[in-house]
Structure formats: C-alpha cells, structure tokens
Design brief:
The chain has 101 residues and is α+β, with helices and mostly antiparallel strands. The protein has 2 helices and 3 strands; from the N terminus they run H-E-E-E-H. It comes from Variovorax ureilyticus. Keywords: Signal.
Length: 101
C-alpha cells in the first residue's frame, strides 16, 4: 500500500467520523422543558431573583423557600422540600424589578 492510498483512506475515515459525530450531537441538542423549583437551593446557587434577593447567586440560606433553580420538568415534585414556583418576583432583579414596572 503506497502513501497516497493511505492518505486517501485516512481522509475518508476522518470524514465518516466527522459525519457520525455531527449526526449524534442532534440528540443532545434537544431542548428540555424546565420548571422553577423552589426550596431546594444551596445558598448562593439560586438561578434568579426572589422577594429577598436581587438575582442569581444571591440567596443567603440553604433551602430558602423562595430561592429557586431550573430543573427538568416533572423533577421538582420528586425532590424532598421542592415546590414548583411561578411567583411574579422570581425574575431578574427580584421584587425590586416588580416595583419599577
């Protein structure tokens, strides 16, 4: 087998590998539906505002009943202490943002 034949085979194998890799990433790119789950967050790990904190990472106590994070839809009810929340102050800026609007 000469060098040019090996080079062509290597190029074809690379293209096939790239094609298979690109095709498989489509499964990972699917959008997962989420919900806001309150009462399970570690201090400083919340995803956004509450009536007591202004935005992400500003909660001061573990498992604050208002602090929330996004979880896959249907997961929150399965976590001890978790509750789905849709409070209006659970937005960037927290309660302060609600007073401006």
């Amino acid at each position: 087998m000469n060098a040019s034949h090996q080079l062509v085979q290597g190029a074809i194998a690379s293209l096939l590998a790239l094609g298979l890799g690109a095709a498989s990433t489509g499964a990972f790119a699917q959008k997962v539906e989420t919900e806001k789950c309150a009462g399970i967050v570690k201090a400083g790990s919340n995803d956004c505002g509450t009536s007591k904190s202004s935005c992400a990472g500003t909660s001061t106590t573990d498992r604050d009943p208002e602090a929330w994070i996004y979880v896959a839809k249907g997961t929150c009810a399965r976590i001890a202490g978790g509750s789905v929340t849709n409070k209006p102050e659970n937005v960037p800026g927290g309660a302060a943002a609600m007073k401006k609007g």
